[in-house]
Amino acid sequence: MAAPLAFVAAAYNAGSIVYSLTALASTSFVYVSLFSEQKWLQSLMTNRFLIYTGTISYGLYLLHKIPSGIVESLRLDRNPFLPLPIIFVASYAIAALSWNLLEKPFLRLKRFFESKPAGRAGLAISVAEPSV
């Protein structure tokens, strides 16, 4: 129900309500995907392409503007059907390269920087005994 409301709100330029409804719709979709007992939905949501896309999603988020800017600078956006596949494939390729060449090697270094939980010892305050 939230997704159609988000489209209606966007059509009426309702501003920030669109973002709230989109977040609600996305959260609902994730919830249904995780807890549904429908086998077709479980197999759809656990396919290798979607899982890998989730792995490189941060790179997609950060780097999608690069192919988009190139498409605009080359004026390929005049044709309404050409830019989307180019931007999608190029963004995916750049994010995959970023994951394999940058993110994964840096994540391997995590073991050298493990922190220890502070616990109560880190919060202890020393109270001196009053001298008599």
Structural write-up:
- With 132 residues, this protein is an all-alpha fold.
- It has 2 domains: 1-37; 47-110, no CATH class.
- The protein contains 7 helices and no strands.
- Helix 1 packs antiparallel against helix 2 and helix 5 crosses helix 7 (83-108).
Record keyword descriptors for this entry.
132 residues, 2 domains, 7 helices
Q: Secondary-structure element order, as H and E? A: HHHHHHH
Helix and strand composition category: mainly alpha
Rg value: 24 Å
Number of domains: 2
How many beta strands in the DSSP annotation?
A: 0
As an assembly, this protein is single chain
| Count of alpha and pi helical runs | 7
Main beta-sheet annotation: none
Overall mean pLDDT: 84
Helical amount among residues, as a percent range? 55-70%
Strand content: under 5%
Detail the poorly predicted runs: none
Short structural summary:
The protein has 132 residues and is mainly alpha-helical. The chain is built from 7 helices and no strands. It has 2 domains: 37 residues; 64 residues, no CATH class.
Layout of helices and strands, plus pairs?
Blueprint: H1 2-11, H2 16-35, H3 39-45, H4 48-55, H5 57-63, H6 65-73, H7 83-108
Helix pairs in contact: 1-2, 5-7, 6-7
